[in-house]
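In this section we walk through a basic example: taking a raw amino acid sequence and producing a predicted 3D structure, encoded as discrete structure tokens. The instruction is simple. Fold the sequence below.
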Amino acid sequence: MSLEDEALCPVLEAMLFAAGEPLELSRFAAALECGEAEVRSALAVLQQSLERENRGICLLRLGDSYQLCTKREHAAVIQKLLEIRRNTPLSPAAFEVLAVIAYNQPVTKAYIEQVRGVDCSGVVGTLCQRGLTEEKGRLDLPGRPLVYGTTPLFLKCFCLESLSELPEIPEREQKPDEPFEQLKMSEESEEE
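The resulting token sequence is shown next.
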């Protein structure tokens, strides 16, 4: 093991972790601005290191691509974990965000946050991860914000054939602003 291989290992591990999918040798080499042989050598060292340290992950080689994966012996417990997470019901916040998206799509995250009054990044991510919403493109505005909409899975989960079957939003009762009413009442009592 050369010092160069040892220095590249943490960088390669970070790249593999961040990608979450198989990466081709050529992509590593391009990003690191080095040769494929050098990258291949460092990946072999990383693979041996993961095996030697008895870690829960391993480096899988798929032709000229590499990916970090969990070890086979942990498959049952990981499957159990993912099933638990998959079957978790949506939170009230997730239902609110889903309703905003369904009734107003396509919408930006900023619009959803304006309606709800709180940061919705995590909830929007969860809904996308569960396949109920998805990115529908970008607005042609400064910053090119992403817009979100519902998916066919959303329709399936809520037993809808189309978005036109969404229930009508009930008209909101207009309640007078209490401070304004109190001010108005105090002005009337002063006039008497």
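Looking at the output, two observations stand out. The domain at 3-73 is CATH 1.10.10.10 (Arc Repressor Mutant, subunit A). Residues 3-19 form the longest helix (17 residues). In the next section we compare this with other chains.
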